[in-house]
Design a protein that fits this description.
By secondary structure, the protein is mainly alpha-helical. It is built from 23 helices and 6 strands. Helix content is 70%, strand content 5%.
Length: 536
């Protein structure tokens, strides 16, 4: 049996291949200009787009020793994601030291398994219901506010849960990461893909919502069905999992935690932390009695912080009376709630989310009677454990720098867009979709791709009599599916790195599913050419 290369080896090989391409592909560039975009909330912003008929060839800049400097550039470019991974890893190491997640997982499984007493749940399978509901929730997050980087933090939770239920680490990653990205691909209100693409294509923001909602339902159902099929296969035959041996890391970790009996207690430090957090939340609720939540193009004003403060005061008291482990889980739950509120209501990104998880880790450590020195040591141990996952994100980003500095990305874009000129409607949309899908392998940023491709694609759609909305849908699907397989996606590399899944193993497992989604995506685009859906 052939040994699978290390993820670092695979990514560096791709950097070398990208450098070789800069020697053979002609160098070229588009002229770009800044345009004014009127956002759904009434604000005005500027965006860089490509001028029509502005492509021109430039002098070649073949990459040589830059394969090494690209690593530095990649680390600098993805510094926010790398730091985010390290901070989340360190924070969860502090939390894990309390064994709160283990207590929560086992308590959850014991309660859920009691549902097997009921014929309906026994027939459907309690584990199937758990997986379906979790995936549905994360798919909705991906569809509404473009959840992506946030899934990195959840992998640490769902992989141990999947292992405890008799599955493998791949199922754990699918429950959050794959679900969110299937929702991301079939999004209805994602401002980072649909909002930008429609703005550049001069379409009403979030128009065509009805058909996109149908697409989201279809794609989410397919994603859940596929994961359930695989999960049940692994449950019956664990040795068929490609992670069967590698998951020994998680199984050994679970065994070690089982061998150490957990002492249920409610220390004074826990009550002190409960009082501090309650006061902080009450003050925040007084200072910010209402929150404007932006979902797609609409706004809703809700008293979210007062509600969360009241719920924490009540739940925290009863959880801490039961045990500090459940109180720490309560802190984790409200951390997730504040994450969602922060993203939707206050425009949080990785910096704010990193700070939120760091605060969670420190509060968990204090509640668990850990000294300041022990909290610092646990944080560093968590950073060390997740360091390889963080570093490979920067490594993968180097691929884009090689292609960009070699001036070949625009050439590839120009050559493929020219191929559309001699095709019909169905073929043109198919080529657009295939092009967006292929381009996503080397440029995973949806907003960057929209700024680069939509000025050309939207105007070409007018020439061949295709709805601009159809080209946005082709962009959306093309931008979404291959995010789950491209080595240039920092989020993918981080998630599978946290789960200890080698990149080659992941690709070997998921490529058929991605291919199937790509085919389904094309079939979902075709009706828009012949049926006058609202917004199309």
């Amino acid at each position: 049996m052939k040994k699978i290369p290390h993820t670092f080896t695979i990514v560096f090989a791709l950097i070398v291949i990208a450098a070789v391409c800069t020697w053979f592909i002609p160098a070229g560039e588009f002229v770009r200009e800044s345009i004014t975009i009127h956002n759904a909330d009434g604000s005005v912003s500027t965006r860089e787009v490509v001028q029509n008929n502005s492509f021109h060839y430039v002098d070649k800049n073949p990459q040589t020793w830059q394969v090494f400097s690209a690593l530095f550039d990649g680390f600098v470019d993805k510094a926010d994601i790398i730091i985010f991974i390290l901070m989340v890893g360190g924070a969860f190491w502090i939390l894990n030291n309390s064994h709160a997640i283990d207590v929560g997982v086992m308590s959850f499984l014991r309660k859920v398994l009691k549902l097997n007493r009921y014929k309906l749940f026994r027939k459907l399978g309690v584990e199937n219901i758990i997986i379906s509901l979790i995936m549905l929730m994360f798919s909705l997050f991906g569809a509404v506010f473009g959840m992506s980087e946030e899934t990195i933090a959840f992998v640490i939770i769902f992989v141990p849960l999947a292992i405890s239920m008799g599955y493998d680490s791949i199922v754990g990653v699918c429950m959050c990461y794959v679900a969110a990205h299937v929702g991301f691909a079939g999004a209805m209100l994602n401002p980072f893909t649909i909002g930008i693409a429609q703005g550049i294509a001069e379409l009403p923001i979030f128009s065509g919502l009805e058909y996109r909602f149908l697409c989201w339902i279809v794609l989410t159902a397919i994603g859940i069905a596929f994961v359930l099929w695989y999960a049940n296969r692994v449950k019956k035959h664990p040795e068929k999992s490609p992670m069967y041996k590698l998951d020994d890391y998680w199984r050994q970790r679970a065994r070690e935690q089982e061998q150490n009996p957990i002492e249920y207690h409610s220390p004074k430090s826990g009550w002190v932390m409960y009082a501090i957090l309650s006061i902080v939340m009450i003050v925040c609720a007084i200072l910010q009695p209402s929150t404007v939540v932006e979902i797609g193009g609409g706004e809703v004003t809700l008293p979210i912080l007062p509600i969360l403060a009241a719920l924490f005061v009540i739940s925290g008291f009863f959880m801490l009376r039961k045990s500090v482990h459940f109180f720490i889980l309560d802190i984790l739950l409200f951390t997730i709630c504040f994450l969602v509120v922060g993203v939707l209501g206050y425009g949080w990104y990785v910096k704010e989310i990193s700070a939120l998880f760091l605060a969670m880790g420190i509060c968990s450590g204090i509640a668990d009677r850990q000294s300041a020195d022990n909290i610092a040591k646990l944080f560093l141990a968590g950073c060390k454990d997740i360091l390889s996952a963080a570093l490979v994100v920067g490594l993968a980003s180097g691929i884009i720098f090689i292609l960009r500095d070699g001036h070949v990305i625009d050439t590839i874009l120009y050559a493929l867009s020219c191929s559309l000129a001699e095709t019909g409607q169905v073929s043109s949309v198919g080529v657009m979709y295939a092009f967006q899908t292929a381009l996503n392998l080397i440029m995973p940023s949806g907003s960057a791709k929209a700024a680069l491709t939509m000025p050309i694609m939207s105007q070409f759609a007018d020439l061949i009599g295709v709805s601009r909305q159809a080209t946005v849908l082709a962009f959306q699907f093309g931008d979404g599916f291959t995010n789950m397989i491209t080595p240039t996606s920092g989020v993918l590399i981080a998630c599978i790195g946290v789960a200890k899944i080698p990149y080659a193993t992941w690709v070997k497992w998921i490529w058929k599913f991605i291919l199937f989604l790509i085919i389904i995506g094309f079939l979902l685009i075709l009706p828009t050419l012949f049926i006058p859906f609202p917004g199309f």
